[in-house]
Write a structure and sequence with these properties.
With 171 residues, this protein is mainly beta. The chain is built from two helices and nine strands, in the order H-E-E-E-H-E-E-E-E-E-E. The strands form four sheets. The protein has a three-stranded antiparallel sheet with strand order 2-3-6, with no helix packed on it. The two termini are 18 Å apart.
Length: 171
């Protein structure tokens, strides 16, 4: 939750999710929540658990509960039309021969040299004897959102719940 971050509730300032909208909440419950994982699983393994980063990580487990990875993609982009682009035009008037990109983001795909090798997650160390080490900012395997977990929303009051700086967030 945002209140556990080192900078408290202000860590969520750039998140524009409105959980008070029934449409957004329904879309979230059906299409987004099943894929969300927590940045912090409640333990300090990497030293970054209380510092959620803007980085987006997409990784493919190798079938061994994240002890190794087939590939890892890391970027700064959001999952949005603004970040990835889309057909130009509006509604049914879209030109399928044109693609509009609103912003530019950077990402990197990390893969081993061949299909027989795998990437090995490394925590709290810049050195490893592994052939393809990948320094991870969070502990694996990721912890999925529980049924009671909610995404941060600046449109919701959090009552008496204090953040790491002793502040509450109420609108």
């Amino acid at each position: 939750m945002s209140q556990e971050a080192k900078i408290g509730y202000s860590v969520g300032r750039s998140i524009h999710f409105d959980y008070t909208s029934r449409l957004n909440r329904s879309n979230y419950e059906q299409n987004i929540k099943p894929y969300l994982c927590k940045w912090n699983n409640g333990h300090e393994y990497t030293g970054r658990e209380r510092n959620p980063a803007h980085v987006k990580l997409y990784m493919c487990d190798n079938g061994d509960d994240f002890k190794s990875l087939k590939w890892l993609y890391m970027g700064s982009h959001n999952l949005s039309k603004q970040a990835w682009g889309g057909g130009s035009g509006f509604g049914s008037w879209q030109n399928i021969n044109e693609y509009q990109v609103s912003s530019y983001e950077l990402g990197i795909l990390i893969t081993p040299e061949n299909d027989k090798d795998t990437l090995k997650p490394v925590f709290c160390s810049d050195f490893s004897s592994e052939k393809y080490p990948v320094r991870m900012p969070l502990y694996l395997p990721p912890t999925r959102y529980s049924p009671t977990d909610m995404p941060w929303s600046k449109n919701i009051s959090y009552g008496d719940v204090k953040d790491s700086l002793g502040c509450s967030y109420n609108i």
